[in-house]
C-alpha cells in the first residue's frame, strides 16, 4: 500500500503525476473513503486519466472531499467522474462519525444553512487544489453536479499554474432530479474557481445560488415579490462554465472565438434551447484566458454542445482519451 | 458632517444630469429583451429583470464599495496607519480583485468608463477652486480636503497610466468617502442609482413609460433595495484584512444570476443596439 494513505483524512485524495521519457507516471495516487481515485491504462504519450468517484455515486450533507493534485513538467492529466455528482440533503446521523473531520471550523461546526423547510442541513464541501508545472496540462471534465431537494453544497477549486502551464476547467450544475419534478429546489449551491498564474490571480469565478428565505417584507406596507431560483434560472435546467488558460488551449480558444464572432442576435420571440457566451478572462492576462458560459433547456443539449465545442482538446489528450469525456 | 450637509450631498449625487456615463449602460437589459426573456408583459419584464439583476449586482459589487469607502474614509479622517502609498496600493488590490471577478468584458468596459467618470466628477466638479473663498474658517477642514484631493488625484493618475482599472464600485466608494458621506448612505445611494439607471434604460428601450418608471422606483424598487442592502451591507471582500478570498465561500462577493451574466456578455452580439452594455 502507498505510505501516504495513512496521512490523509476521510474524503482526502492526492495525485502527483510526472512524465518520464514520454510516459505519464503517478508518483502518488491515493484516496480515502468516500472518495475513490481510479486510473485506467491509456496509450496516449504523456497522458494519464483519473476518475474521481464517490461511493454510492453521491455525497450527503456533511461530506467533505479534499483532493489535491500536482501535474509536473510536461505531463497531461484528464480528470473525470462517472455520472453526475449527486448531492443529497443531509441525514440526521453523521456519516463516518468516527473519522476526523477534514476541515477545522473556527466554531467547531461546519457552515450550516437553513433550508426552506426549516431544518439545518450541514454543508457538503468539495475542495480541490491543483498545481500545474510549466508545459503541463490539466483538463478537468467532470459530469455535472446535481443537487437534490434541500441539499447544500460548496465547491472550491484553485488552480496554481506556472508560466506556460495550461488548464481547462469545466464546472456545471443541473436543476435537480427532474424525474421527481425537482427544478432548482436545492437549498444552496456555491462554486468558486480561482486561477492563479505565476503567482498572480487572473480569474476568480464565484457562483452562488441560494433559495431566498420565504419572509415577506412588511415594512413597506407591501410584500416584496419573491423570486425563486427557478424564476431566475428558467427556462434552463443546466448551466456550465468553462475556464481556459495557457498555451496548450490556444487552438481551442481561437476556434471558439471565431465561432462566437460569427453569431448575430436578431430580435427573438422566444428564448433559444441553448445559449452560450464567450469572454476574455481579464484585460491584462495577455488574452491567454477565456471563459465560456453555456445554458441549456436540458443537460443532454449542453453536454452535446460541450463535446463538440471542446473537441479540439482531442489534439491535446488524444482522440481515444477525449472520447472518455461526455459519455 | 451634519445631517443637512449629508442630505445636500445626497441631492447632488442623485442628480440624473451628473456626467457619470450610466446613460449608455443597460446592464444587460437590452440583451435580455432582444433574447426574449422575461414576461410577455413589458412592465413585468422590467420589474423581474430589475429584481434579478439588482440582487446579483448588490451581492457582487457592494463589498467593494464598502471596502473602498472604509479605507478612504479612515485615511481622510486620519484613523489609520496606512499612508498614502499604502492606501493606494490596497485600493489597487481591490480594483484588481474586482477585475478578476468580473469575467465579462462588456461589464468590465462599462464599469471602467463609469468609474473614471466619477473620479473626474470629483476632481473637476466637486473639488474646491483654490481661488474661491472657502466658507470654512477651519484650517483643519482645509487640510482634510487637500489630503483627500491628493489621494483621489493619485488614484486617477494610476488609472490613466493603466496601473489600475478604475472600476465603478471602487471609485464610488472613493468618491463618497472623499466627500464625507457615511458608509450607509453611500451603499444605499449606489444601489438606488443602479436601480434608477436600469429603469431609465427600460424607458429608453420603450419598455415602460416615464410614469411607469417612477411608479416602479417608488413602489417596487424601494423594498427591493432595502432587502438587498440588508443582505449585503455587512459583506466585505477580505482584501482589507489581508485574507485570502479563495477560502471564502459564504461571505464574499458572488454572482447570483448566471443567466443575466450570460446575456450581458452576449450584448455585443446584438444586431442592433442602442446601449454599450
TrEMBL record, chain A:
<comment type="similarity">
    <text>Belongs to the UreD family.</text>
</comment>
<dbReference type="InterPro" id="IPR002669">
    <property type="entry name" value="UreD"/>
</dbReference>
<keyword id="KW-0143">Chaperone</keyword>
<protein>
    <submittedName>
        <fullName>UreD-domain-containing protein</fullName>
    </submittedName>
</protein>
<dbReference type="Pfam" id="PF01774">
    <property type="entry name" value="UreD"/>
</dbReference>
<dbReference type="GO" id="GO:0016151">
    <property type="term" value="F:nickel cation binding"/>
</dbReference>
UniProtKB/TrEMBL annotation, chain B:
<dbReference type="InterPro" id="IPR038277">
    <property type="entry name" value="UreF_sf"/>
</dbReference>
<dbReference type="GO" id="GO:0016151">
    <property type="term" value="F:nickel cation binding"/>
</dbReference>
<dbReference type="InterPro" id="IPR002639">
    <property type="entry name" value="UreF"/>
</dbReference>
<dbReference type="Pfam" id="PF01730">
    <property type="entry name" value="UreF"/>
</dbReference>
<protein>
    <recommendedName>
        <fullName>Urease accessory protein UreF</fullName>
    </recommendedName>
</protein>
<keyword id="KW-0996">Nickel insertion</keyword>
<keyword id="KW-0143">Chaperone</keyword>
<comment type="similarity">
    <text>Belongs to the UreF family.</text>
</comment>
Amino acid at each position: 500500500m502507498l505510505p501516504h494513505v495513512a496521512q490523509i483524512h476521510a474524503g482526502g485524495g492526492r495525485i502527483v503525476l510526472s512524465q518520464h521519457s514520454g510516459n505519464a507516471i503517478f508518483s502518488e495516487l491515493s484516496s480515502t473513503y468516500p472518495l475513490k481515485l481510479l486510473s485506467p491504462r491509456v496509450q496516449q504519450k504523456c497522458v494519464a486519466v483519473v476518475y474521481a468517484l464517490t461511493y454510492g455515486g453521491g455525497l450527503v450533507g456533511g461530506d467533505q472531499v479534499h483532493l489535491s493534485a500536482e501535474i509536473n513538467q510536461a505531463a497531461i492529466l484528464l480528470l473525470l467522474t462517472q455520472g453526475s455528482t449527486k448531492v443529497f440533503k443531509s441525514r440526521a446521523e453523521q456519516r463516518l462519525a468516527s473519522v476526523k473531520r477534514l476541515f477545522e471550523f473556527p466554531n467547531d461546526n461546519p457552515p450550516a444553512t437553513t433550508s426552506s423547510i426549516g431544518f439545518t442541513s450541514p454543508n457538503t464541501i468539495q475542495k480541490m487544489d491543483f498545481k500545474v508545472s510549466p508545459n503541463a496540462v490539466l483538463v478537468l471534465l467532470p459530469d455535472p453536479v446535481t443537487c437534490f431537494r434541500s441539499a447544500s453544497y460548496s465547491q472550491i477549486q484553485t488552480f496554481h499554474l506556472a508560466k506556460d502551464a495550461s488548464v481547462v476547467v469545466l464546472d456545471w450544475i443541473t436543476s435537480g432530479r427532474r424525474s421527481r419534478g425537482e427544478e432548482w429546489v436545492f437549498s444552496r449551491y456555491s462554486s468558486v474557481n480561482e486561477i492563479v498564474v505565476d503567482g498572480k490571480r487572473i480569474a476568480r469565478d464565484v457562483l452562488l445560488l441560494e433559495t431566498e428565505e420565504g419572509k415577506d417584507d412588511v415594512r413597506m406596507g407591501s410584500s416584496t415579490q419573491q423570486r425563486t431560483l427557478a424564476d431566475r434560472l428558467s427556462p434552463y435546467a443546466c448551466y456550465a462554465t468553462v475556464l481556459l488558460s495557457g498555451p496548450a488551449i490556444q487552438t481551442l480558444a481561437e476556434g471558439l472565438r471565431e465561432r462566437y464572432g460569427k453569431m448575430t442576435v436578431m430580435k427573438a420571440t422566444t428564448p433559444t434551447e441553448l445559449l452560450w457566451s464567450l469572454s476574455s478572462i481579464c484585460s491584462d492576462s495577455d488574452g491567454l484566458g477565456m471563459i465560456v458560459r453555456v445554458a441549456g433547456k436540458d443537460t443532454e443539449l449542453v453536454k452535446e454542445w460541450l463535446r463538440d465545442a471542446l473537441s479540439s482538446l482531442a489534439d491535446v489528450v488524444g482522440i481515444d482519451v477525449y472520447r472518455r469525456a461526455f459519455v | 458632517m451634519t445631517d443637512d450637509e449629508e442630505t445636500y450631498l445626497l441631492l447632488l449625487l442623485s442628480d440624473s444630469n451628473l456626467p457619470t456615463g450610466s446613460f449608455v449602460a443597460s446592464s444587460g437589459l437590452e440583451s435580455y429583451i432582444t433574447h426574449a426573456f422575461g414576461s410577455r408583459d413589458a412592465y413585468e419584464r422590467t420589474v423581474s429583470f430589475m429584481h434579478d439583476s439588482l440582487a446579483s449586482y448588490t451581492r457582487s459589487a457592494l463589498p467593494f464599495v464598502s471596502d473602498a469607502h472604509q479605507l478612504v474614509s479612515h485615511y481622510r479622517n486620519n484613523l489609520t496607519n496606512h499612508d498614502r502609498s499604502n492606501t493606494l496600493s490596497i485600493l489597487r488590490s481591490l480594483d484588481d480583485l474586482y477585475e478578476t471577478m468580473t469575467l465579462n468584458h462588456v461589464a468590465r468596459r462599462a464599469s471602467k468608463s463609469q468609474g473614471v467618470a466619477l473620479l473626474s466628477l470629483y476632481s473637476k466638479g466637486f473639488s474646491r477652486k483654490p481661488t474661491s473663498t472657502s466658507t470654512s474658517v477651519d484650517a483643519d477642514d482645509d487640510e482634510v480636503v487637500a489630503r483627500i484631493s491628493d489621494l483621489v488625484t493619485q488614484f486617477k493618475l494610476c488609472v490613466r497610466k493603466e496601473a489600475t482599472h478604475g472600476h465603478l464600485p471602487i471609485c464610488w466608494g472613493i468618491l463618497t468617502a472623499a466627500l464625507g458621506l457615511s458608509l450607509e448612505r453611500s451603499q444605499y445611494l449606489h444601489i438606488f442609482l443602479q436601480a434608477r439607471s436600469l429603469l431609465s434604460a427600460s424607458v429608453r428601450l420603450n419598455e415602460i413609460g416615464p410614469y411607469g418608471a417612477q411608479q416602479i422606483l417608488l413602489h417596487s424598487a424601494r423594498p427591493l433595495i432595502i432587502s438587498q442592502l440588508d443582505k449585503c451591507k455587512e459583506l466585505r471582500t477580505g482584501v482589507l484584512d489581508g485574507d485570502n478570498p479563495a477560502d471564502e465561500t459564504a461571505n464574499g462577493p458572488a454572482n447570483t444570476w448566471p443567466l443575466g451574466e450570460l446575456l450581458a456578455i452576449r450584448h455585443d452580439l446584438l444586431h442592433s443596439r442602442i446601449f454599450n452594455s
